[in-house]
Amino acid sequence: MAQVNCPRCAAPIELDSGNKFAKCSYCGSMIFFDRTGAGFYYAIPFKLSQNDAVGTFRRWAGGSTKAKDLDRLASITSVKKKYFPVYLFRRDVNGREEVYVKPAGSTILPGLHQLKVPGGDLKIFDGNFDTNGAELVKPDIEMTHYLDNLPGKGKEQALVYFPIWTIDYTFNGASYQVVVDASSSEVFATSFPTRSSAAYLLVAVAGFFAFLVLGFVATVYLVPALILMALTVVAVFFISLTVARRL
Predict the structure, then answer these.
(1) pTM to 2 decimals?
(2) Residue extents of the structural domains in the chain
(3) Dihedral (Cα; 67, 68, 72, 76), 10-degree rounding
(4) For 137-166, what is each residue's pLDDT tens digit?
């Protein structure tokens, strides 16, 4: 077995081969270890409850680019509470501190390459940290995978467990998934049901040709053409309003 020193109390820790995690028997700290050495790993507490996460999803689903009534008609099939692992790199780049966050676990979940770690919320993950039943996703990407491509010089590097809610839902027979950032309430999705733009385009094209024709009419009959243009504006407005309400 390999032996490393605890970053907190410097006590020796025996590490089994192939195991990235160990607990210091002296101070109780949880230690993460890979080929770059031993270090603390952190966790960010959940700020959103399950009900809050579902409410955040519903508000997101009611956005103007989403399919009509997605917020009401989306059928949620599962809601899962997870801690997803990311690497936090603080680097000195030309005298300026830059922070980089990279996934530590393989994933196809949307948004997990765009997470931002709020520095003030970092808590050392030790025996006193309560996960409250959240699933801990195990890291399977080495920190060294990123180090060679990062600019500047390293100031700090750590493993951070990031709080997320994954929500699976169905709409019109198709399945989708979103990730809700449980620290910032951001919602990430690679795909979602969108609002059709065909009806809007049809109204726009019809309005364009109507004004084009009335423009020619105005060269001969100005006053009648102006009256018809005013009526056309009102008609286009009410047709657009009807389309917006129904689609």
Answers:
(1) 0.67
(2) 21-188, 198-246
(3) -10
(4) 888 888 888 888 899 988 877 888 889 999
